[in-house]
Amino acid sequence: MKFTKMHGAGNDFIIINAMQEQIAPERIPELARVLCSRRTGIGADGLMLTDHPTDGGDFKLLFYNADGSLGEMCGNGARCIARYGYEHGLSGDKANIETTAGLVTGERISETQYRIRLNDPGVIDLHRPACGFDCSYIELGNPGIPHAVVMVDDWDKKPEDELRGLGRSLRFNPAFPKGANVSFAKLTGSDCIKAITYERGVEDFTLACGTGSGSIAAVASLKGLVSGGDIRIQMPGGDLYISLTEESGRVRDIFLTGPTCVVFTGETYLV
């Protein structure tokens, strides 16, 4: 089975063209677990498959987390798949990508820089208490990708194991019935935020989270902490940039821009 490994700001993915490879749908969750294993597989935060479009897009994206669970969508994954689509003739400079969370549009900025429009939020709750924190909760798309945003100035001073335990507790907290990706964030300058995200399905911190960055920027904008234009999100794997439009307590047109990298291509027999 042929594959491509890519990453966007350290958020890494295995990509398989399901239009060429014959994969039974019921086998995909186990395939994701096997291939994404850091020790016995290729290693990645998630598995992405491109397939034939069914709703007017250029192609369909199926995203599976490293634990084999089906994800609604992935921001950095969508940026990578936009580049993959361009370089493999599935789309042009602009791509209409069908996802479980709805249609996502991608755009080629340069050879490595790609921008996508994230799904508009379907749910926004700026004050949802959990684990002693005044969290903000947001869902991007429909069905929405759930994110809990914790704005706290000292998160990066906490021991890593303590922060991981807190992320895990919030991820499964009853305040978030669907579970949640959990982002710890703090303002570090004008339109500049330092953050890290504990992701569902990976069950650990990742080097970057695209939908997490969009959610952080949306929350910060609604709280009057940032301008809404060219917001820099500093994540462990690199910087991502968000622009959005805010109107009457709502946000829309959330654009995520950042780097993509083709790590390697190959063929695996772990099937």
What does this structure look like?
The protein has an 18-stranded mixed β-sheet that branches. It has four helices and 18 strands. The longest helix has 13 residues, at 75-87. Helices cover 17% and strands 46% of the residues. It has 271 residues and is α+β, with helices and mostly antiparallel strands. It is globular and about 50 Å long. It has helices spanning 28-36, 75-87, 160-171, 210-222, and strands at 2-8, 11-17, 46-51, 59-65, 70-71, 94-99, 102-108, 113-118, 121-130, 133-140, 145-151, 181-189, 192-199, 204-206, 231-235, 238-247, 250-259, 261-267.
Number of DSSP E strands: 18
Average the pLDDT over all residues and give the rounded result. 96
Assign an overall shape: globular
Strand content: over 45%
